[in-house]
Write a structure and sequence with these properties.
alpha+beta, Peptide Deformylase, 6-stranded antiparallel beta sheet, 6 strands, 33% strand, binds nickel (II) ion
Length: 174
Amino acid sequence: MTENTVLQLGNPLLRQIATPVTVFNSPEFLDCLSSMQTLMESGNGVGIAAPQIGVAMQIVIVASRPTNRYPDAPEMPATILCNPQLEILNPTLVKGWEGCLSVPGIRALVPRYQAIRVRFQDREGKSQQIDLKDFPARVFQHEFDHLQGLVYLDRIESSRDIVAESEYLKLIAH
Ligand code: NI
């Protein structure tokens, strides 16, 4: 079932393990993609995963672009990744700020691999691969975790790495 809002932390559907997409271009699949895009854009997000709208399917969208939530994000075309598999290209863990449409009001520093390769199927089911580094790699790893029922707070090193969004906005103000 597709929700009209992004599910919030505490909703058990966020802790489900997503299963692979097997039928592409079904009405359910297309409806899910369209809801994901709408809710990501209305929330000024740079990514979203199907479990966040209550659909336990392996679909994520990565859409790095500068927004008021991520003013320094690089511009890249919105990419739909189905059934993604992650390969680590650079195992260096880099801490950076993350937020989540399912966890409003706070930000935290999260360690992520610096560079990755992702093998996935596009919205037509065709096999693709993409290499990502830095912020887009971070966004993907964040969304990929949602497919495993994880949120970014599960990845932080210390509760001291969590801040209120209002304090985060002061930190990034130049
Ligand atoms: Ni998230």
